Amino acid sequence: MPSPVSAQESAPASRRSKITPERAQELYTAVLDLLRESGYDSLTMEGVAARTRCGKSTLYRQWGNKPELVVAALHSTRRPLFSGIDTGTLRGDLREAARAVESASGQDTALMHALSHAALQNPDLLCAMRSTLITPAIAAIDTMVERAVERGEVEAGNPALEFVAAQVMGVMRARPLLEERYTDGQFLTRFIECAVLPALGLPPSPPAPSGGED
Fold this sequence. Notes:
Layout: H1 4-16, H2 21-38, H3 45-52, H4 56-63, H5 66-76, H6 90-104, H7 108-121, H8 123-151, H9 164-179, H10 185-199
Helix pairs in contact: 2-3, 2-5, 2-7, 5-8, 6-8, 6-10, 7-8, 8-9, 9-10
């Protein structure tokens, strides 16, 4: 028969085990939704508990505090923004990246902005944000550029090569600060055509057809 002490020691583990993976995913989704809606500073464990109808004490037992819960939510919902893009040309790849930004403008882009300031003050949060949102996107763009060099589209010695990812990711971060709106697909496509590709020595896109034949 277990002693009172051992029974007490096993109680927290027993309580934690009641959160199923499906339930944890619901909590993580709610955390990220609240971050997008109100930002990191306004996020509270109480707010997450109310949104998910979960006991606040359960959240604290499982994750300890708000930063740990946010880090867990980021790691559990990782979705590489530009994964799987390979059109056969760098222009095509970057255009597809712009379309991906369009579809994610209310999700990953909003999340990056919600977390940016807080992440600079919390090393664990910054590490999670980089590993789940930023680093995979940069790696995907770098892969697009490497393929373009291998195909001979872009000269290997072009000094602008190393800045493509910084340009694309940077304009996504900068536009909300400059114009108070997210970088949508149309804006990013124009930016790519007017700033990124010319620096790589690629010709402008041909003009779109003006209409049907007479």
